[in-house]
Amino acid sequence: MSRAVAIIPARYASTRFPGKVLAEVAGKPLLQHVWERARMLRTAEAVLIATDDERIARAARGFGAEAVLTRDDHPSGTDRVAEVARSLAAELVVNLQGDEPGFDGKAVDELVDLLAASPGVPMGTLAHPIGEPAELADPNAVKVVVDLDGRALYFSRAPIPARRQGAGQALRHIGIYVFRRAFLLEFAAWPPTPLEQAEGLEQLRALEHGRPIRVLVTPHPSVGVDTPADLERLRRLLAAG
């Protein structure tokens, strides 16, 4: 059985929604919903929360999670995850998102298994088919195109691929990653790259260094929270069962 450590990066100072990981949803902090779902992963031998904020660490410990305090100058969640992973012995590290409680746990387990069986693949991620034209046009919905072997060719906020007759299925990227620990530490040591800065997408750093990213397609979209309106939609979704 493939085994990995899952790490949930969580910061308080979100630009669009400060403190969102502690926002209450169905009687629990949003972060707790993510943690509880992560604990159901078959492939995760441990689930850690990485944060630079004592308020988040205190809340996490309050619901039973193991919280690790990190530096406060990390430019991305992946850098925060890498700081924690540096002291771990696990070969594979799952980088979850503290604001996405609806991720497909089965797909994450499959991605861990895929990397465990493919030693030449340094990292993998998830995507799901886009069904609505508005989603394809939305710059907040990151798109990915893949080659015939399921490796990422490019990630963009632009609508890719161009929608022509007979074009393939457009895919929306889900910001969950599985890294080989050694590659994660290498990745975090690189400075931001030109395309990464142009698109505002850190995963492009790997492609710009010529490293492959395996993309596993799941039919299930992830439920993320970026704004207070997203939080209200999630509350309604959970209330509806």
List keywords for this structure.
Spore Coat Polysaccharide Biosynthesis Protein SpsA, Chain A, 24% strand, 11 strands
Summarize the structure.
This protein is an alpha/beta fold and 241 residues long.
Beta strand count: 11
What distance separates the N and C termini? 32 Å
Helix content: 25-40%
Which quaternary structure do these chains form? single chain
How would you spell out the order of helices and strands?
EEEHEHEHEHEHEEEHHHEH
Question: In one word, what is the shape?
Answer: globular
Q: Biggest sheet, in brief?
A: 9 strands, mixed
User: Which CATH first-tier class of the domain at 4-124 and 174-198 and 220-239 would you pick?
Assistant: Alpha Beta
- Individual helix count: 9
Give the helix/strand class: alpha/beta
CATH architecture of the domain at 4-124 and 174-198 and 220-239: Alpha-Beta Complex
Beta content: 15-25%
Low-confidence sequence ranges: none
Mean pLDDT: 91
- Tell me the name of the CATH homologous superfamily of the domain at 4-124 and 174-198 and 220-239: Spore Coat Polysaccharide Biosynthesis Protein SpsA, Chain A
Radius of gyration: 17 Å
CATH fold-level name of the domain at 4-124 and 174-198 and 220-239? Spore Coat Polysaccharide Biosynthesis Protein SpsA, Chain A
